[in-house]
Predict the 3D structure of the following.
Amino acid sequence: MLGRFGRDAGSLLGVEFTPPFIRLVQLRRQRGRYSVVAWALEPLSEAVMHNGWIGDPEQVGALLLQAVRRSACTTRQVAVALPGGLVIEKVLTVPAGIDEHAIAERLPADAGPFIPYALEDVAMDFQVLGTALGDAQLQRISVAACHQGLLEVLDACLECAGLQVCSVEPDGHALCRAVQVGGEPEALILQIEGDGLVFHEPVGGMLQRRECQLPRHEDIVQSLAAAVDSYVLSHPGRSLPAQVLLCGAGLANGRVPEQLQCRLGIDVRLVNPFTQMALANGIKRQTLLAQASLLAVACGVAMSEGPLCRG
C-alpha cells in the first residue's frame, strides 16, 4: 500500500529508515497548527539494510522499538518514508471528470507499460494534479509504484515493534511537505546522506529527483558547489535557484551552509520544519532544532494521511 501523499494528518508517527539513524517524529495537528509530541534518533547500521531498504526486519524492528520507547510517543499508527530511488513515479493523463474509483480501476492498464515487474507484485497509488495544459478534456495524475515485497518487509519490521502502518510515501514528497510547512519558499533541496546526494525540486506539480555520489575524501563544500553547478548546467537556460536548502546526516560540518553560500553567492540554509511548531512538555527546543535537518523527512511523512490503518 502506498498512502495518498499530500493530505493532512491528525496524529501520526513519522518514520524514516536511513543509516546512520532510524528517525522518528510524532506530530499532532489541531486547528491547522502542528505541534511536536515526540521524536528520536536511533543508530542504524548499514549491516541490517539491503539495497537501501530493510534487510533484517527483526533486528531493525528491535531498534525501532527502542526508539519508540525512548521517544515516549503516544501513538502506534505510523507513516513511513520509502527511499525515492525504490519508487517509480510517472505523470499520466486520464479523461477529465472521472472519479478516484474509476482512476484506480484503470490504473494497472495505464501504468503497466512503465512498471518493470509483474503487476501482481506491484503496490500503486496516485494523486490528481489537475487539468492537463492545453486540453480541458484530460486531467493529469501522478502515479507512484513500488515492489510489494518492500512493503511486506516493512510490515514484518513494524510488527516486531508493535506498530501499524497507515501510509507509505516517497521520501522526497515528505521532505518537500516539511519544507513548505517550515515556511520556506520553493527552493532546490539537497539531501546529503553519507557520500550520497539527492536533488529534490518541484517542477510543474511533479517532484524532480536526481541522485549522484559525492567524491570521497574531498571537501564537502567544494563537492556540493560543483554538484549544484552541474545540476544547473544540465537544464539549458536554467539560472541558479534563489535558495538552496540542505538536510541529512552527511552534514557533519555545521558551517557547510555558510561556506556553500559564499561559494554559490545565493541563500543557503538548513531545512527546519519545526520553527513555528509548538512543543510538548519535556521537549527541549534547542536540542530538537539542532537535529532538525536530520528529522525533516520523518517530520514531513508524519504530516501525511493515507487510507485507514490496516488491522
